[in-house]
């Protein structure tokens, strides 16, 4: 079930809210918790019921393993053994469903063999709920759950709470479970509901009005990579840069807004990442909960920066390589992660020189570096990604819009070719104009760089009639635009 669907907005969500707060009104806290758990399981099972069993087995296994770890002596040999058993079982599950065919196809390519590939359907959200539970086992091993052995219902709701289940934010147990133990979480709050609806509407607007409208531009460019000109390649790369941002940040806003409707505060997942002035700054702003997970459960356990600069760079690259592989079973994702590991290493090395760039230049090179990395992230194959990057950097020639025999024909002396607008067939159209489409992308650059983000907008929100009218109009436009239901991009990860 998708957030941006009529069945979710007009049926599932109202029924879930009414049942939750009706039970809460009579202080039937446990019943309300069970109701929210049942509806969350239904939300997941609606997509593919057979895989609901896989998730339930995973939840029961990790709950029991976490309690077993918390029951033995802190960081004892037995606790270590239980932790490794839990991690291996979780990784075995995700590796089978997500990486089996990737491994087999890589072996076939490398050794020119013909190993048969299995028909494996990737369970929705397996990356998110598996990593959430691995983090829980590690926290249990560290002694952070010993005083709070959670019952199965509470633990299950922590994992499957439907606003964050499909694509995050990735939660830690201490970010959600304590809220489930408070009576006020089950009592209707006009303020939280108003803020939640506003956040949901803002996120829905990002998804429906921007990301979904840019999506066809992305598809056209990345389906014709070998035929793109210099400008067409840049327009395609920028289109995906904004599609991914407005799609995923829109989902995160909607998830946080839904949480607030239930009086649950979920962590912020985006903080204007395209305003970043360094790659380190970018990763403090982009998919914040994943960045924190990689830092706390991978980078720091590997040694972090405690064992010298060379080891630090090795740990950074290793962490990002695995982070790339987490996103998808393909060499494009691995290279994307490795590229960001190199970016981060260069970033830390440059900081040691204490020669900062001017702010505008630091922002520009960071933004361009991120755009190039997104090309690899989106490309169907490694060769496609490298071909598009070669085109963007001018290695396949530079072609710009213009009259070949006009005043700018002199540019041909510098290796720059001119083509009429109508001949640049892979440039997108907006209102029948290719120029208007390009100007809209330039406008989005100024948007993400200069305008306030969702959190800053919400900080200024006041529950007045003017806000209600504005949100109502925005939501109505979105609902009227739901002529086709499109999945969120991060669902595939």
UniProtKB/TrEMBL annotation:
Q: Name one GO molecular function term.
A: acyltransferase activity
Question: Which cellular component, as a GO term, is one annotated location?
Answer: plasma membrane
Record EC number: 2.3.1.-
| Listed InterPro entries | Ac/AlaTfrase_AlgI/DltB (IPR024194), AlgI (IPR028362), MB_O-acyltransferase (IPR051085), MBOAT_fam (IPR004299)
Annotated GO biological processes are:
alginic acid biosynthetic process
Sequence intervals crossing the membrane? 6-23, 35-61, 81-99, 120-138, 150-171, 316-339, 359-377, 426-448, 464-482
Q: Kindly state which keywords UniProt assigns to this record, in alphabetical order.
A: Acyltransferase, Cell membrane, Membrane, Transferase, Transmembrane, Transmembrane helix
Q: Name the major location.
A: membrane
Pfam families per UniProt: MBOAT
> What does the UniProt entry say about where the protein is found?
Cell membrane
Q: What class of enzyme is it?
A: transferase
Q: What is the recorded membrane topology of this protein? A: Multi-pass membrane protein
| Record carries keyword Transmembrane | yes
**Cross-referenced PANTHER family:** ACYLTRANSFERASE, TEICHOIC ACID D-ALANYLTRANSFERASE
Please give the family membership noted in the entry.
Answer: Belongs to the membrane-bound acyltransferase family.
> What name appears for this protein in its UniProt entry?
Peptidoglycan O-acetyltransferase
Species, as recorded? Hyella patelloides LEGE 07179
Q: What is the lineage of its organism?
A: Bacteria, Bacillati, Cyanobacteriota, Cyanophyceae, Pleurocapsales
Q: Which gene encodes it?
A: patA
């Amino acid at each position: 079930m998708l957030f941006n669907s009529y069945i979710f907005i007009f049926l599932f969500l109202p029924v879930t809210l009414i049942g939750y707060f009706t039970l809460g009104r009579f202080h039937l806290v446990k019943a309300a918790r069970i109701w929210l758990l049942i509806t969350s399981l239904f939300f997941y099972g609606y997509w593919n019921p057979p895989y609901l069993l896989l998730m339930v087995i995973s939840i029961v296994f990790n709950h029991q393993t976490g309690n077993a770890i918390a029951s033995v002596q802190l960081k004892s040999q037995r606790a270590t053994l239980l932790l490794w058993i839990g991690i291996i079982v979780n990784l075995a599950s995700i590796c089978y469903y997500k990486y089996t065919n990737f491994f087999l196809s890589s072996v076939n390519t490398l050794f020119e063999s013909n190993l048969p590939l299995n028909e494996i359907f990737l369970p929705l959200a397996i990356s998110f709920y598996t990593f959430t539970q691995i983090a829980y086992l590690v926290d249990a091993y560290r002694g952070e759950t010993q005083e709070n052995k959670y019952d199965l219902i509470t633990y299950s709701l922590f994992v499957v709470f439907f606003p964050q289940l499909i694509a995050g934010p990735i939660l830690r147990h201490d970010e959600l479970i304590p809220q489930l133990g408070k009576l006020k979480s089950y009592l209707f709050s006009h303020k939280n509901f108003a803020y939640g609806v506003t956040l949901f509407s803002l996120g829905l607007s990002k998804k429906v009005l921007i990301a979904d409208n840019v999506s066809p531009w992305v598809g056209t460019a990345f389906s014709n990579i070998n035929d793109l000109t210099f400008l067409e390649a840049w327009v395609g790369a920028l289109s995906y840069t904004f599609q991914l941002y407005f799609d995923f940040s829109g989902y995160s806003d909607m998830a946080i807004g839904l949480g607030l409707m239930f009086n649950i505060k979920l962590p912020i997942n985006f903080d204007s990442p395209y305003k970043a002035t360094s790659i380190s700054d970018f990763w403090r702003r982009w998919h914040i909960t994943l960045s924190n997970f990689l830092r706390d459960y991978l980078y720091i356990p590997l040694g972090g920066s405690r064992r010298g600069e060379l080891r630090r760079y090795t740990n950074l690259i290793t962490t990002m390589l695995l982070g790339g592989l987490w996103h998808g079973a393909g060499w494009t994702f691995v290279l994307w992660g490795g590229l960001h590991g190199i970016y981060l290493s260069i970033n830390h090395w440059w900081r040691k020189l204490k020669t900062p760039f001017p702010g505008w230049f630091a922002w520009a090179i960071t933004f361009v570096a991120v755009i190039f990395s997104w090309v690899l992230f989106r490309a169907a194959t490694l060769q496609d990604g490298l071909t598009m990057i070669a085109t963007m950097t001018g290695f396949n020639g530079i072609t710009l819009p213009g009259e070949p025999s006009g005043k700018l024909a002199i540019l041909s002396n510098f290796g720059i070719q001119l083509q009429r607008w109508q001949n640049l067939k892979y440039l997108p159209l907006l209102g029948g104009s290719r120029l208007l489409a390009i100007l809209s992308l330039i406008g989005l650059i100024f948007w993400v760089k200069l305008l306030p983000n969702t959190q800053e907008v919400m900080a200024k929100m006041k529950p007045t009639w003017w806000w209600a009218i504005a949100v109502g109009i925005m939501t109505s436009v979105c609902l009227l635009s739901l002529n086709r239901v499109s999945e969120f991009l991060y669902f595939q990860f």
